[in-house]
User: Fold this.
Amino acid sequence: MTSTPVPAAGGGVACPVGRDWSLVSLEAKLDRLVALQEAANRVEAEKVEVLAAIAVDRDRRILADCPDEDDTEAGTHGRLEDWSDAPELVAPILGVSLGVATGRLHTAVGLVQRAPALVAEMAAGRLDGYRASMVHADLADAPAAVEAAVVARLVGHARKVGGWVEPVGPLRRRTRTIVARCAPDLPVAGARADRRDRGIDVRGLSETLDEWTWRVPVEDSRLVRAAVEEHAGVLRSETQDLSVPQSRSDALTALVLDHTKVTVHLHAAVPADDTASDLVRLTGFGATDTTLVPTTWLRDALDTGRAVIDQPLLCDPNTGALIAGDITRGFRPSTRHPTPCTTTHGATTATDVDPRYRIPAAIRRFIAFRDKTCRFPGCSISTTFCDLDHVTPWPHGPTSPHNLIALCRRHHRLKQTPHWNVRLLPDATTEWTTPYGTTITTSPVNLLNTIPPAPNLAALPPDPAVDDPRHEPDQPDLRDLRDLSPMERHLTELLTAA
Ligand SMILES: [Zn+2]
Assistant:
């Protein structure tokens, strides 16, 4: 196949869209795909170099700001310092989380400094960024000389067989085989390091599903899997129409919960949408969004003490932000320490002010519930691990929810540098100004699932939410706290209907 890419800025190809490809031969379409992939590889090579250069740039800035740092080679430095704000700068541009941005910056620095032959292959259009990053990841713990030797052999192999023809799996196996020959001790050291990376990550997949990523040592994994399969088989024999994946999920849930005694706190912040549904919308569980759960689950959980419903919470009708409520003592936004909790019968409000610098426990709980995570753009660290920061330093700014936000240690420190600025607005949104002058806004948890107002309402059709009684912008009235919310009335009806 031959390709005739149209030259474009940056050495790529022009990409006109809207062409009728049904009139083009298959060979020409495949040729075009080759050209586009080569162009994408070249763009990835340039992105790697730019990301590495940004990391070096921000490292120099940090070392210039912190003359006490034990590093006198700022001019030639480049490794992505722990306190670099490069991830914060590139994450919104790439549209990824701070964790992913940090990983990409580390990979870029590593590729440029330790595996320039791979970057050269990308720049020539022969290798894509994903496989290059996977090869580098398998070599990241190896000495630089070993990585260079292994990369040279991989490049030589690709030349010999006519290109990087292996997909990721076989390529990584080849990489590890060469590493084992070049440095036999490394795989053993790597296995020890891998075991330290065991852990669990949980993320919300939808309103009804969470997704767990579990990194577990192989020997434990085999045993747990055998136990899950055994119990899943029992469940399938008891329940018709239960698929194998569903039965595995149910079995693991049962095996864990049968050996623990935990309680989740649910909050009546959202009226039920559909009284005829077998699903009910709840706030709680430590999630940042509302959740749809079966009413049968809710009834059982309340009966068995797995769940309790706390006092109703008063929310801003426009932003859904917490305005007033009694966040029970012992409550945590996550379910790590869910019990015991006691109701304090004294609601905290967004306008409360305490004369002291030290933040009272009730205001701490209020902020933790309102913010749920660090308020820096893109940061998802739970308030369990955050500091509470006076946005305007005390005593110039009060100890009050309207001057306090949750910030993780990293972003607390970043906020105190001269490069980043933040304002906390009356509706609890924050406005961050980056070192290059752009503004990024972050919102508190929207407990009402309201839709933010559009920037130019006059140019848009009427918002149907305006006619919805639960969105009426009434002034907050603390007397509402003593009444049953629609949610509570709905729950009462559901639970007494059985
Ligand atoms: Zn943070």
The longest strand covers residues 199-204.
